[in-house]
């Protein structure tokens, strides 16, 4: 076990609701909004309640309960300009972006935000978004090969001059970007996140990314992914941080939290969940080892469309804090949280859960847990 990850405090991010419909595909009340004004206030609330990161979602057209969407990179910049400390991660699709164009946008956003811009490379799960735009839809492992090149190219452009790159998907000829993003003591370039669950995603994360984002997982699932990720990273003389998605239902009593989960699932928008399931399970099942995203997800899991219920951050503040620190001991560096009622629940988390996490971390020094 790495003592470095134990010594550092676990970090927290939240899903930016820049897509309508909330974070669960259910008719239950969700006190949230996909609009600009709501999200500005939410970002400011989050950074004042212990959240270090926010992740803007990417969807390009209506799908599975998400009728409206704000574009992720422009929305991320708006949030950055309205906050002081929050780091905002924009989700992007290779195949719909050229890495040099995104590198240019990212450098500008990084300067405007004084070094708080990041990207999450999403290799693509929604085939219609590509085919409706006349773009080729690649098979699973080919999409991840393209993402690997995308990550490699964008880091080179951000850190090197006169870049030449000859890949299967991208060709760069003597290209120099100026100004480059800020080089800060925390990071030499904007942080690069790789999302996914498959073996191909883990290989990309270990070889090319700064962070690896996982869908929701229990302890066994997290351990398996971290072991694979570290093995790949070590083989390439690298280290990678691990982020875990979890839908957080923190209530004063466990019964109230479990009743909320039960109501979410009971009121699921069944046609939307089933449509999403049919669209995404081909992604995981199309891999040779069946380890891709959503490959083993049940209907109940998919009501939160990134398997957030699997992480089981559901219960009292004490129960959730203990589980978060248990994930940290396994090597999780960041929790990406989704919420039913974003504004008040992020405040509740910051007031009730986060102080308990910090107390538990302080009591569990490296010497105590080895």
TrEMBL record:
Query: Does this entry carry the keyword Hydrolase?
Result: no
- Luciferase-like domain boundaries: 11-333
Molecular-function GO terms, alphabetical: alkanesulfonate monooxygenase activity
- InterPro entries registered for this protein in UniProt: DMSO2_SphG, Luciferase-like_dom, Luciferase-like_sf, SsuD_RutA_monooxygenase
Q: What does the UniProt keyword field contain?
A: Flavoprotein, FMN, Monooxygenase, Oxidoreductase
Q: Which domain of life is it from?
A: Bacteria
Q: Name one GO biological process term.
A: alkanesulfonate catabolic process
What protein is this chain from?
A: Putative FMNH2-dependent dimethyl sulfone monooxygenase
